[in-house]
Amino acid sequence: QSYCHRLQHDMYFLTSTSRLNEQVVDKIVLQLNRVYPQILTNEEAEKFRNPKASLHTRLSDLLKHLQKKGDRHCQEFYRALQINAEQLFNDLPSRKILKTPDPTEIDTDKKQYLLNDRGPVFFLACFSVAAGLALFWYCCNSETQVIGRARRILGFSPIIIGRHVRNICMLYLEDIPRN
Asked: Where are the membrane-spanning stretches (predicted)?
């Protein structure tokens, strides 16, 4: 969307009661008048800062004037609005439309994994339990031929998961060449 179309879409929201106060409108007009490139001339700035006219009328005239000038002028208005009234800028209807995700687009903010917030300790605990159960099933299976002491040691490995796992595996490896 062009900035002119966005401004037309946001016009009602901006001009509705108590959205922008007089100070913020004056700051925006001054910024549009003083910042390079100069969007409003001195005469136009005086017209839009005239305290004799109502705020609603001045703001409506300013927005219509910017739309007539073109997309660059409307873009500078949005920049000034963001600087001087950031909360209002974030609440604009056109910003909400831009923030809504496209259903065909992949949303990278969604959680990728269900257990992502559990941390590495949870993963290691689950992995250890799974590995222990696999070893227990392997040792208790009657088709496998595991020698007596090694079978007993590996049979209890799910219970002894921790720092002793390395020692148990070493005992098993030493026991195999002897038999």
From this structure: 120-138
Domain with 37 in it: what CATH number?
Answer: 1.10.533.10
Name the more confident of 19 and 88.
88
Q: Report CA-CA distances (Å) from 119 to 12, 115, 128, 129, 165.
A: 48, 8, 15, 16, 22
pTM over the 0.85 mark? no
What is d(CA 47, CA 66) in angstroms, rounded to the nearest whole number? Answer: 13
Domain that holds residue 68: 3-97
Confidence of residue 109 (pLDDT cuts 50, 70, 90): very low
SS3 helix, strand, coil % of the chain, rounded to 5?
Answer: 65, 0, 35
Look at the chain and report how many structural domains it folds into. 1
Residue corresponding to tokens 């969307």: 1
On whether residue 103 sits in a domain, the answer given is: no
What is the Cα–Cα distance from 102 to 122, expressed in whole angstroms? 35
Task: Write phi, then psi, for 121 (nearest 5 degrees).
Answer: -65, -40
Residue 107 belongs to a domain? no
Residue type, 114: L
